[in-house]
């Protein structure tokens, strides 16, 4: 029997047709199984958790069948209460599957503490940018009799003298005692 006769025979065509029907039926069954096992078309909407406390965020996520995953936060934001959500991923309004992890970034309890640099015997012109680069604010400028004009003699915070290595919260105001250029 030649190859052309075999390909055009009724037996071969029946086998090919049966194979195509079997593939179609298996694909249909597989797609229906996937649809039911992956909850195709069933979504949960991510709520807006920004500014809410951890406990409120946890309750809202449980109501929406979502899971909370807390990420650490190093930057204090004074616009939000302590330990409240300042960011979330995925964002509010996003459609996700149930039991999806929602990553939350929390606002810490306050600004982190930073070491005070050594500013003694530096000019005000040098000291001010150093303080501002570290996140401190320059408070009051107080002049005392000293031959070094605008030379930093002391540093104070809330009336107390501070020295190099002391730790203060970021954005703290540091008062500087400077020389006025006159002999004591």
UniProtKB/TrEMBL annotation:
<keyword id="KW-0472">Membrane</keyword>
<feature type="transmembrane region" description="Helical">
    <location>
        <begin position="12"/>
        <end position="34"/>
    </location>
</feature>
<keyword id="KW-0812">Transmembrane</keyword>
<protein>
    <submittedName>
        <fullName>PASTA domain-containing protein</fullName>
    </submittedName>
</protein>
<keyword id="KW-1133">Transmembrane helix</keyword>
<feature type="domain" description="PASTA">
    <location>
        <begin position="42"/>
        <end position="108"/>
    </location>
</feature>
<dbReference type="Pfam" id="PF03793">
    <property type="entry name" value="PASTA"/>
</dbReference>
<feature type="domain" description="PASTA">
    <location>
        <begin position="110"/>
        <end position="180"/>
    </location>
</feature>
<dbReference type="InterPro" id="IPR005543">
    <property type="entry name" value="PASTA_dom"/>
</dbReference>
